[in-house]
Amino acid sequence: MSKRFWLVVLVAFMAFGWYTFRFVTGANAIVFANMTIEEALDYAGERDKPVFISFYTNWCMTCRSMMGGTYRDADVVAYFNSGFINLSINAEDPAYGLAAATEFDVRTYPTLIFLSPDGEVLFRDSRYFDGPTFRRLGETVTERMNRWRGQ
């Protein structure tokens, strides 16, 4: 094959790598804690916050859309980083994700679960949310959390 072809392929891979780094990671995104659900519940109890869990897979395009868009929306980032303990779990990871997904009967992706600090499910859904809708969902979960507290 020609050098030009391989140059185009190389540039395409570099562009995809830049996109993945820029839009799936970075400072302007929901900060997902690196802990188990049990650790997150303990941490949430200490801080009196709900836990948000995003179950995803590497092949799920809707999951990628939420990672690259919804979870980077400025209003969503501000609201979720201040009001929730956030977890992102690869449901196919044999080290932890498979067991966690089984525990919560996760079968479709993305699956979004919100828990009170004692583990009660406040909300659960398996679909795409855009930024403004997801922010409103966060507000609804906060209201449910307030009812759970008895306020």
Domain count: the total is 1
Shape: elongated
Give the CATH level 1 class.
Alpha Beta
User: How helical, in percent, are the residues?
Assistant: 40-55%
- Terminal Cα separation, in Å? 69 Å
The H-and-E topology, N to C, reads as HHEHHEHEEH
Structural class: alpha+beta
Please name the defining characteristics of this protein.
single chain, 151 residues, alpha+beta, Glutaredoxin, 6 helices, 4 strands, elongated
What does this structure look like?
The chain has helices spanning about 5-25, 35-45, 60-70, 75-85, 95-105, 130-150; strands at about 50-55, 85-90, 110-115, 120-125. The chain is an alpha+beta fold and about 150 residues long. It has a single domain (about 30-150), classed as Glutaredoxin, CATH 3.40.30.10. A 4-stranded mixed beta sheet has the order 2-1-3-4, with helices on both faces. β3 and β4 (about 120-125) form a beta hairpin. It starts with a helix and ends with a helix. The mean pLDDT is about 90.
